[in-house]
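Assemble and predict.
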Amino acid sequence: MVKILKYSFFDLIRSRWSLIYFLFFAITATSLLYLSNDTSRAIASLMNIIIVLCPLIGTMFGVMYYYNSREFAELLLAQPIKRSSIFLGQYLGLSISLTLSFVLGMGIPFVFYGILGSVEFANFAVLLLAGSMLTFTFVALAFVIAIKNENKIKGFGLAIVVWLFMAVLYDGLFLLSLFIFEDYPLDKFSLVMTVLNPVDLARILIMLQLDISALLGYTGAVFNKFFGTSMGFILTLICAILWIIVPVFGLNRLAGKKDF
Amino acid sequence: MKRILIILLCTWLASFTSDAATLEVCKGCTYQSIKAAIATAKSGDTVIVKKGTYKEGNIEIRKPLVLVGEGFPVVDGENDSEIFTIYADSVTISGFQIQNVGTSYTVDRAGINVVKSDHVVIKNNKLINTFFGIYLQKSKHNLIENNEIIGEAEEEMSSGNAIHLWYCKNIRIENNTLKKHRDGIYLEFVDSSRIVNNVSEGNVRYGLHFMFSNHDEYIDNTFRDNGAGVAVMFSRYILMDNNLFDHNWGTTAYGILLKEIYDSEIINSTFKKNTTAIYGESATRMKIHNNTFEQNGWALRLLGSCMDNTIKGNNFYSNTFDVTTNSSRNYNEYSGNYWDEYTGYDLDKDGVGDVPYHPVKLFSYIVTKSESSIVLLRSLFIDILNFAEKVTPVFTPATLVDEKPQMKPVL
């Protein structure tokens, strides 16, 4: 598995797309930092970009990479290698290379700006962590979709729908349910709803680190209390990890069963 | 006739002051305690207190005296008693360091307590850890100037106010620094008073708190980092001019909290980084003109009960929400403001945008309808909704509109 991981990783790192992805984040982060002159505000603006883009790029790259490397995978399948290690290797290779582009692209401007040792470092770390988590989750989801669908168009379509659902529609349903159940105490409910969607989870985690959390008022206080305790933190972490492990497990199972 | 009267009055006053004696208080002086000096002093005398520490419990002043501290003599209440209590008119207290009054849950003890006395002057004092700093009750024509009042308040229950006025008239409060109390300045039934150039910061509750007070002015003050900002309630004819409301930040903090206030003006003020810059409940006939709102969570939060207010010539920069209301109707007038999110154009180049601006975003409307939906703040879905609503307003009050949005910030 490590060999395949290595191969995928270096193959991707050399590709033009990784560089573009890296440059995109590097340029955005740099320009935001120098325009706002305030790390806290730059982090707040980057948050908006990350919670939309990391999942989108993750899904798109995932689906694309699977379809593109399908022939290579078939070639490998003819060898005496475990199926799980082929696909897991590819998955990890892609996720790690995307995360690396993301972390370096964001990290380098911030390091030059002096984030190391500044008070904002924890906030920035949460930002990076959230972005990485989103990448791992959505690449896994993309692989699952791609393995399930031989038809490329269908696979792409489904991947976009999944992204759209998580990033946009879910919040719409969330809002709708808040209105429908207006008469009930909704703090616990919104907490659960947030934890169940990786995009929302990332958004809230970053926002609670920032100044704007004061805007969240009473609900924000409930959230802060939850995420502030070690219990809340562990639960969040478990949820985030589950959002990676469950799709990866599914991917493994599907790859094992699939008739190539 | 009038002139003669004035001259007579002046000569009378002059003779009066020339009669006045000066008494000195210090370790080696005739008077070793402030109390002793006060006891022998006659009306109009000056008591000069030299540098040193005086622990004399409660000092009562029942005749018009001038008390002057030299080199900030320390008057200590040893956490057990009120310090100066003034029962006479025309008393002046200046240059003291008054400290350690101590918390009491039964009496409102103060560093300087003025009871039913007029023309009292309190200036250039330092008050440290005085439960209530300066307390005026049923007094008129007093001046509180250049004092530094620093408390150690941690919670509302066990703390007092830096300057507390109750049933007063014609008071001037100028150039004071007020820190770490429950309220920086508290006014209840106080009329025709001026509060100028004070700095009120780090107070547990409000930087300034008005209750049932009319015809007052507060000008050039700074309110920073207070637990809940400034509250103006049940008052009429208040002028709020050129104040700075800075970083009153917290889940229930406000720049100004308005409740049942009529015919007042908020002008030329700057609101920066407050959770809610102006929150209005039943605020009526207010003029909110020429203010700058910068980086606030909510800039204006006027509930449906606010009527006939005019909001003109203000600047709105980088606020999360510019205007919110919980009503689908609008009874206030918005005109000639600068909105940084305005995207219209100005073909005739007269500086006024040709497209009216609707400052209420759909999300702010949603949030006032259902509080908990604020958790969706900064979600992509919300941005899309806001955009759709901006193109064709359906939910947000269609009449809440600035017909003359400015293209450039109003100076």
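Chain A has a mean pLDDT of 88.
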